[in-house]
TrEMBL record:
<feature type="domain" description="7,8-dihydro-6-hydroxymethylpterin-pyrophosphokinase">
    <location>
        <begin position="88"/>
        <end position="99"/>
    </location>
</feature>
<keyword id="KW-0418">Kinase</keyword>
<dbReference type="InterPro" id="IPR000550">
    <property type="entry name" value="Hppk"/>
</dbReference>
<comment type="pathway">
    <text>Cofactor biosynthesis; tetrahydrofolate biosynthesis; 2-amino-4-hydroxy-6-hydroxymethyl-7,8-dihydropteridine diphosphate from 7,8-dihydroneopterin triphosphate: step 4/4.</text>
</comment>
<keyword id="KW-0808">Transferase</keyword>
<comment type="function">
    <text>Catalyzes the transfer of pyrophosphate from adenosine triphosphate (ATP) to 6-hydroxymethyl-7,8-dihydropterin, an enzymatic step in folate biosynthesis pathway.</text>
</comment>
<dbReference type="GO" id="GO:0005524">
    <property type="term" value="F:ATP binding"/>
</dbReference>
<dbReference type="GO" id="GO:0046656">
    <property type="term" value="P:folic acid biosynthetic process"/>
</dbReference>
<keyword id="KW-0289">Folate biosynthesis</keyword>
<keyword id="KW-0547">Nucleotide-binding</keyword>
<dbReference type="Pfam" id="PF01288">
    <property type="entry name" value="HPPK"/>
</dbReference>
<dbReference type="GO" id="GO:0016301">
    <property type="term" value="F:kinase activity"/>
</dbReference>
<protein>
    <recommendedName>
        <fullName>2-amino-4-hydroxy-6-hydroxymethyldihydropteridine pyrophosphokinase</fullName>
        <ecNumber>2.7.6.3</ecNumber>
    </recommendedName>
</protein>
<dbReference type="InterPro" id="IPR035907">
    <property type="entry name" value="Hppk_sf"/>
</dbReference>
<comment type="similarity">
    <text>Belongs to the HPPK family.</text>
</comment>
<dbReference type="GO" id="GO:0046654">
    <property type="term" value="P:tetrahydrofolate biosynthetic process"/>
</dbReference>
<keyword id="KW-0067">ATP-binding</keyword>
Length: 161
């Protein structure tokens, strides 16, 4: 079994409910074990600012799915919730990103792990710190140390999972 971390985000069609539905779907999946979910946080969007604020969380679980099979599962959940992607970094009903897959580094056309921008994003690192504050990241820092390097002033606590 591999320990995976995923980022969850939404800013359309009742974003908190979108995250809750995705989490419920993951809980029911046979290949997802020991699911844990961070608190949910609100933040300003990355990219175009003419869109609603986002809600974000991080989930961790164990799986025996391959990285591509896990990506396919995440994308199927997005599609089942009528994922809308109008433009790059634009609004969306649901975004599920594979952040970490064990200690593996993956460079494939469809998938890069660790997630390309995760170390720069407070809305990823803050919820990750809820689950694994002492985990060592690829840059040699713990999640807590990385969080201290980021501006998280726009993060708003929404709810505890």
């Amino acid at each position: 079994m591999i320990h995976a971390y995923i980022g969850l985000g939404s800013n359309l069609e009742d974003p908190v409910a979108q995250l809750d539905r995705a989490i419920d779907t993951l809980k029911k999946h046979d290949d997802v074990k020991h699911l844990r979910v961070s608190s949910i946080y609100g933040s300003k969007p990355v990219g175009p600012q003419d869109q609603p604020d986002y809600v974000n969380a991080v989930a961790s679980f164990e799986t025996d799915l391959s990285p591509i099979d896990l990506l396919d599962l995440l994308q199927s959940i997005e599609q089942s919730q009528r994922r809308i992607r109008e433009r790059h970094w634009g609004p969306r009903t649901l975004d599920l990103d594979l952040l970490l897959y064990g200690q593996e580094t993956i460079q494939l056309p469809r998938l890069t792990v660790p997630h390309t921008f995760m170390l720069e994003r407070g809305f990823v690192i803050k919820p990750l710190s809820d689950l694994a504050p002492n985990m060592l990241l690829a840059n040699g820092k713990t999640v807590t140390e990385q969080l201290q390097q980021l501006d998280t002033s726009d993060l708003v606590f929404i709810k505890e999972e």
